[in-house]
Amino acid sequence: MSYKTILADEAATQALGKSLAPCLLPGLSIHLHGDLGAGKTALTRAILHAAGHQGHVKSPTYTLVEPYQISIKQRAVTLLHFDLYRMLSPEEFLEAGFREEFNDNNICIVEWSEKAAGILPPPDLHIFLSIAGHGRKVELQALSDKGNECLALLRFAPNL
Ligand SMILES: Nc1ncnc2c1ncn2[C@@H]1O[C@H](COP(=O)(O)OP(=O)(O)OP(=O)(O)O)[C@@H](O)[C@H]1O
Ligand SMILES: [Mg+2]
């Protein structure tokens, strides 16, 4: 299953994040793709706020990961937001125990998964963002049953 649309402005990115939040399932792993400034962190921030996180969402550029507690169907779930742009080596990822965070309980959203190719488990969902004029193109692609389950729940109609 896949879904494509245009996000005309940042409000549309926020609206997509809000629509995606109730579709998240424990164990889901999402890889976000797109150039610098494509909107990967903006989308993650919108998902987190819609999923009940009230504080700041900073880009995990130097820490590589930031954990959040969110609530899914009244169950507390850890969502890990990775940004692997500055990851130096696969060893750094493995020694930090990041591989173990990709399990049936956590939700993982990964920016720059390309940097950890070969050591990351395949995602349930790919989200591709690209700059298109003043806005963004977005494509969501499910790769697993869990990814299909998530996309089947998505109800999103952008205001173009
Ligand atoms: N649909 C949109 N249309 C226009 N601008 C947008 C849209 N969505 C987000 N933006 C803007 O694009 C920028 C995206 O920045 P963001 O930090 O989210 O990018 P990123 O993909 O995470 O980059 P990086 O690879 O550096 O982490 C922000 O300035 C945001 O306001
Ligand atoms: Mg980012």
TrEMBL record:
Q: Where in the cell is the protein located? A: Cytoplasm
Residues annotated as coiled-coil are none
Name where it mostly resides.
Answer: cytoplasm
Molecular function (GO) terms for this protein are: ATP binding; metal ion binding; transferase activity
Q: Which UniProt keywords apply?
A: ATP-binding, Cytoplasm, Magnesium, Metal-binding, Nucleotide-binding, Transferase, tRNA processing
**What Gene3D superfamilies does the record point to?**
P-loop containing nucleotide triphosphate hydrolases
The region annotated as signal peptide is: none
Q: What GO terms in the biological process aspect are recorded for it?
A: tRNA threonylcarbamoyladenosine modification
Name under which the protein is recorded: tRNA threonylcarbamoyladenosine biosynthesis protein TsaE
Organism source for this protein? Undibacterium parvum
Output the superkingdom of the source species.
Bacteria
Q: Which gene encodes it?
A: tsaE
Give the family from UniProt.
Answer: Belongs to the TsaE family.
PANTHER family recorded: TRNA THREONYLCARBAMOYLADENOSINE BIOSYNTHESIS PROTEIN TSAE
Q: Cellular component per GO?
A: cytoplasm
